[in-house]
Design goal:
The complex is a heterohexamer, with 2 copies of chain A and 4 copies of chain C.
Chain A: E1 2-5, E2 12-15, E3 24-26, E4 33-39, E5 42-46
Antiparallel strand pairs in A: 1-2, 3-4, 4-5
Chain C: E1 4-9, H1 14-24, E2 29-34, H2 44-47, E3 67-72, H3 78-89, E4 90-95, H4 105-111, E5 125-126, H5 129-136, E6 141-143, H6 147-161, E7 170-177, H7 192-195, E8 199-203, H8 210-217, E9 220-228, E10 234-240, H9 248-259, E11 265-267, H10 280-283, E12 289-296, E13 301-308, H11 312-327
Parallel strand pairs in C: 1-2, 1-3, 3-4, 4-6, 5-6, 7-9, 11-12
Antiparallel strand pairs in C: 7-10, 8-9, 10-13, 12-13
Helix pairs in contact in C: 1-11, 6-8, 6-9
Classes of the chains: A mainly beta, C alpha/beta.
Bound molecules: NADP nicotinamide-adenine-dinucleotide phosphate (4 copies) and zinc ion (2 copies).
Chain lengths: 56, 56, 346, 346, 346, 346
Amino acid sequence: MTEAECVECGADVTLHDDLEVGEIIDCGTCGAELEVVDVSPPVLERAPELEEDWGE
Amino acid sequence: MTEAECVECGADVTLHDDLEVGEIIDCGTCGAELEVVDVSPPVLERAPELEEDWGE
Amino acid sequence: MSRFTAAVVGGSGFTGGELLRLLVGHPAFEVVQATSREYENKTVGYVHPNLRGLDLRFSSPEELESVDVLFAATPHGVSMQHIDSFRDAAGLVVDLSADFRLPEADAYDEWYDGHTATEHLADAEYALPELNRENLAGADLIAAGGCNATATLLAMKPLVDAGFVSDGDRVVVDVKVGSSEGGAGGGKASSHPERSGVVRPYAPTGHRHEAELEAYLGLSTAFTVHAVEMVRGASATCHAFPGGPVTKGDLWGAYREAYEDEPFVDVVAGGGGTYRYPEPKAVAGTNRAEVGFALDPGNKRVVAFGAIDNMMKGSAGQAVHAANVALGLEETTGLDQLGLHPVGSP
Amino acid sequence: MSRFTAAVVGGSGFTGGELLRLLVGHPAFEVVQATSREYENKTVGYVHPNLRGLDLRFSSPEELESVDVLFAATPHGVSMQHIDSFRDAAGLVVDLSADFRLPEADAYDEWYDGHTATEHLADAEYALPELNRENLAGADLIAAGGCNATATLLAMKPLVDAGFVSDGDRVVVDVKVGSSEGGAGGGKASSHPERSGVVRPYAPTGHRHEAELEAYLGLSTAFTVHAVEMVRGASATCHAFPGGPVTKGDLWGAYREAYEDEPFVDVVAGGGGTYRYPEPKAVAGTNRAEVGFALDPGNKRVVAFGAIDNMMKGSAGQAVHAANVALGLEETTGLDQLGLHPVGSP
Amino acid sequence: MSRFTAAVVGGSGFTGGELLRLLVGHPAFEVVQATSREYENKTVGYVHPNLRGLDLRFSSPEELESVDVLFAATPHGVSMQHIDSFRDAAGLVVDLSADFRLPEADAYDEWYDGHTATEHLADAEYALPELNRENLAGADLIAAGGCNATATLLAMKPLVDAGFVSDGDRVVVDVKVGSSEGGAGGGKASSHPERSGVVRPYAPTGHRHEAELEAYLGLSTAFTVHAVEMVRGASATCHAFPGGPVTKGDLWGAYREAYEDEPFVDVVAGGGGTYRYPEPKAVAGTNRAEVGFALDPGNKRVVAFGAIDNMMKGSAGQAVHAANVALGLEETTGLDQLGLHPVGSP
Amino acid sequence: MSRFTAAVVGGSGFTGGELLRLLVGHPAFEVVQATSREYENKTVGYVHPNLRGLDLRFSSPEELESVDVLFAATPHGVSMQHIDSFRDAAGLVVDLSADFRLPEADAYDEWYDGHTATEHLADAEYALPELNRENLAGADLIAAGGCNATATLLAMKPLVDAGFVSDGDRVVVDVKVGSSEGGAGGGKASSHPERSGVVRPYAPTGHRHEAELEAYLGLSTAFTVHAVEMVRGASATCHAFPGGPVTKGDLWGAYREAYEDEPFVDVVAGGGGTYRYPEPKAVAGTNRAEVGFALDPGNKRVVAFGAIDNMMKGSAGQAVHAANVALGLEETTGLDQLGLHPVGSP
Ligand SMILES: NC(=O)c1ccc[n+]([C@@H]2O[C@H](COP(=O)([O-])OP(=O)(O)OC[C@H]3O[C@@H](n4cnc5c(N)ncnc54)[C@H](OP(=O)(O)O)[C@@H]3O)[C@@H](O)[C@H]2O)c1
Ligand SMILES: NC(=O)c1ccc[n+]([C@@H]2O[C@H](COP(=O)([O-])OP(=O)(O)OC[C@H]3O[C@@H](n4cnc5c(N)ncnc54)[C@H](OP(=O)(O)O)[C@@H]3O)[C@@H](O)[C@H]2O)c1
Ligand SMILES: NC(=O)c1ccc[n+]([C@@H]2O[C@H](COP(=O)([O-])OP(=O)(O)OC[C@H]3O[C@@H](n4cnc5c(N)ncnc54)[C@H](OP(=O)(O)O)[C@@H]3O)[C@@H](O)[C@H]2O)c1
Ligand SMILES: NC(=O)c1ccc[n+]([C@@H]2O[C@H](COP(=O)([O-])OP(=O)(O)OC[C@H]3O[C@@H](n4cnc5c(N)ncnc54)[C@H](OP(=O)(O)O)[C@@H]3O)[C@@H](O)[C@H]2O)c1
Ligand SMILES: [Zn+2]
Ligand SMILES: [Zn+2]
């Protein structure tokens, strides 16, 4: 298992072994959705957010 | 029918004929509860409030 | 009374259904079309059980009838795209979306995803008669306000008009809304088990309705919107800090000044009984607004409240009200629904 | 249109408030009095926030005005006691309590605490026009039905009329009702924390409305009433076991026969969409009833449904409807409110 | 205490979440896997906010870990399809779906869409210990009951055991359920605005749980299920008509006989206070059942009530209870949650 | 583990019931007395249906047993009056009312109706361990915080500790609470029909909990409290305007610093999925708090959120937590309840 730093809150995020580019995982601390943009070494970015659409 | 001024919001309050000292009426405009403290001429005062008791 | 034909584009949605309810009971309107792509050819009552009695079927928005008034109750962006055909089909277009709410094209770049029909912006009038009555008569493009913006505008207008709050001042607006604000298409977070009983900060910051407050009251607001357990209703609590001293009498004066002649606004500010301040459930199903205030001398704060039905005064009711004004009808025509008491969580 | 003066005794209660809402919006009525002992001299809007606009104060029931129609919305036993003064004050008395609902004095001994004004029983007409229209014209004492009884009567009447269910048959009636049925005076069990979210068998057996079913449909029913989470609404699910074979077509025939000319009854029985069977929330705030059925061939069962707003079709609306008939007005006058969609738990 | 490893297939669903909640707090279990296709690699807390503290991510159901106990909380049909791999992965499989609930393959043809793994049916034990405790010890395939069936079985069992109701008798079962029964995937009718405040006959006739009543109590039932306003809870009101005379004492005897040694069943039948009969909100979040009865001598009827949390005693709690029995653990281990008072609409 | 005897004065009330629920499941406590004047000699289960299993009857508060810990859950003013006999009866008194919450007698004159037992004030420790852990060990008089204050204190503490908000700054606190806050004795405004579905400004200004914020964080707050539709839950939205620039990283740092070792506090601030910010329903029934924040750069605002169960973390849970600390027990003992998912409006 490897780790990477969450870009949102700075916590360590444990990564599973067969990590693939494009996968989305959530940070266990802040819950941010993170996209894997590179695997060796692992690099995470904030994934584009999918907001609930509230019309009003 | 006589009228008196609401001490809370300044609106005119229509008073019924057989007004008695101690009666409580509400202002038709602001809803304040007003106590009749004199009848001729009529004088109104804000009645002591009965709050819902929220313990917390 | 003169009679007008009307069409509702987006008639299967929530505010579209409200438009239909209002127009069906309106003595001056005759509904000739309600569109839906998903429910084409189904009866209106299939979707809206309260309109089972109505003998009308949904038709495609691709084939618009020619009418006196076209109401559009479609998601943001749709009216922009179809505004030419809407205006071809009808002399008066009343749009419930945000597409023509803001006066400046720039504002759409800042708050929305830009604007693709900017040439119509100058024609558009903001629907809220309490703010813009004088410009509605004879208008031919009307934009109904946002529901949270409407609750806030009505709550704050007297304070701005009376000069108690002014330009530089920052007002905190804490809004509570019902689930119908999300429209009929709701996703997972809108499912009953997940959405029930929440106090959920769904728009903690950056709410688009700040733009309407800026545009129509010149007010800087810091908005936070919470989803709470109700279907209908928007309630704005506005925390304002006037520069100088203000009394209860001043406040009563300001609110009376603003609303004593308004047919749809009640001032509710601390009387007796159970209902002492504005509450959305008291106005659910109606075009009424309750506004009010409380004075907090210790904090030099005025708390202003506005409570409406988001789909009525906050959208479809406001739209019909504005159309009444635009067409020269008595303002309250077709809008005399009374609220219910008691009522649960409407 | 002829105009009538009206008084509401018990105007501060729940159904009294509904009467006021209806009469205020009714073109043929003028409300001249609303009584309350507790709120004497307070404005009607103090108690009923939806009627803030009304310029009327509660007065004492001791001093009744002389009016054309007196509506009484008082607890059981009160009308009995005051019926002479009520009838002195008004040519037409419409009572919402159970005091004049049953035709026979004996029934009051069996189901209630006896009757103290039995001499008026013969004058009283049961208010539900769908059952008793022909006797209402010109009546001068009218008794509005019980809300659970009304929902059940409307659901079952077509089955009885068509002969699918008859005398000896035992029908199980499982009712679900909202909290407004308990009236404004609720005790501890009606407090919000205790009453919220319940499915509470509050009248598991021996419900008094069985007497109305017996009296007006000749039907033996085994009633169980549950309090559920809503404020307005009564929904009756009637499990009937016809002696012989019945088809869906037969059932549609029976319900259509019973209700196709009725202005306030919709038959809703298994169509498409979300609202396939009667639901109280679709009729909340209105005088409408939804009735329907489902066929269970495996169990040789017909399930009949009736959904109403307990305070409207189940009480105040029914009362005004009956008064319209009695006074020779168009039946639907003042009763054209439409339900809301979407709506939460009204 | 011996410890067992556990996996939850369908861990992102509603009952899967309940299984996780129970197993995480269970001293004899260690959760090593929770599957979800949609949320693969996301933390369990992403879906279940009450389990934020849990350090576990969803993994694919394609790659099952080898465990002592595999719990499956998947929609009908899934377990049937994967039963071989489930049983390969674990010595004990506990399935929450209907796939192994009925003893006979024929019944699946009648009530469901047939069965594709009939060779396992003979191995399956029905999970409800109150009915089937003696066969659970050492079982290696367990099928948790249906939630409506469970509420009904518990309510009726004492009447059947005591001989008050028997074979030929037709019992009317009128059920009220919360929205979590529909699972996490809900569609339009489950959206908050449409689902709120309903009394909606969602399964008016022909409910599949009739099959379980037939299979495990030998009872013919005429089921009708209503969706009502709550998220958790199933409440069954059973209207039974015993052949001969029955007294309250007889009924107390029957219920006490059935349940006095049962750790999870309380008999609640007409005492004092606010909570006199079984109510689902009193048991929400727990594995408890409240059962009770009322006697209606006039109608020769017994009304039997059963109230449970559909996801707990009606599913995940029952599953863990059965696993405890099967594994030789103290029955109540990990299942000692108490209900809440007051509580709204849980 | 050492064991302690406990008494609950006010055991028939809402927070008294919660204390009983917690103590009954707590391995270190044995409940020997629960008082109620109204329900003297009735079983605890008569009032609290979730505690039907408990073999204990209410007794009079006039005859207190001698115990290790006495918990008082009585209305304001009662503990003040009886504090001498409470302290005679028990070595440790934990009071849930406001009577010993504020350090200075003066504050009682300002915010309450004065204080009649000021000699005990110096002994009292504020119960919230996140603020006052170091002073609780060995305390013999503990005062549980106000529920709205607790939600706010937990939300704001990290901002104060990190220096983002300081003394002179005015923070707007907009609170939403459930009906259980009013206690079991509720009047008319708390009846189900009137209280359902509200967004009701019940304490628009001048809320007494401002005093606790001042006392324990040195913070000036402008409080407004709204009753909303739920039974359990308090949610504080705090609008703060830091003097200088703050980043999301700064905020995460501050909250992590404050709470990473706290067993009962989760930071929830804008992740993915449905539950992105603190929500009271996720912690209902538990001693957990969710806190979080959102950054509004445009308005130079930080919105801080705190969500708790008013009767648990906001009262009875906090009390037991503090007692654990005072008695040297593991802090989480008896407080490991998990929240429910999904759950409606608990
Ligand atoms: N809900 C509120 O409280 C509220 C308050 C204020 C303002 N508004 C505004 O009112 C508008 C409607 O909101 P709503 O809540 O009623 O939404 P909704 O329930 O989702 O309904 C949207 C309607 O638009 C139709 N529609 C969607 N896309 C379309 C397209 N491309 N062309 C034609 N018709 C289309 C839909 O029907 P088909 O897809 O079947 O065609 C449906 O009838 C939105 O702009 C919203 O911002 C809503
Ligand atoms: N609620 C329903 O859904 C429903 C449905 C069908 C039928 N009903 C029937 O309608 C009647 C009223 O029910 P409700 O729910 O409206 O009751 P409610 O809310 O309790 O109101 C009762 C009203 O009667 C007045 N009142 C009480 N005792 C009186 C007396 N001795 N003399 C004069 N006035 C008196 C009360 O005002 P003061 O005490 O201030 O004078 C109040 O205005 C009942 O008979 C009920 O059975 C109700
Ligand atoms: N809800 C209740 O009250 C209740 C009561 C009694 C019994 N039950 C039974 O319990 C079972 C689960 O119900 P629920 O309400 O928890 O359903 P749910 O919320 O819809 O959850 C279904 C779960 O199954 C997974 N899943 C779906 N299709 C799958 C497949 N083909 N292979 C593997 N996993 C699959 C889903 O996750 P992914 O799609 O992400 O893999 C999800 O985790 C059902 O059989 C139901 O009848 C439910
Ligand atoms: N509810 C909340 O969410 C909450 C949150 C934080 C703090 N609190 C505080 O906790 C305390 C209790 O609140 P609650 O909501 O649980 O109140 P409650 O439900 O009204 O209960 C009050 C209890 O006190 C007893 N009691 C009343 N007067 C008494 C007296 N003079 N002597 C002895 N016992 C008396 C009552 O029983 P009998 O009358 O039968 O004796 C009852 O058991 C209050 O101080 C409140 O401010 C409550
Ligand atoms: Zn993170
Ligand atoms: Zn006034």
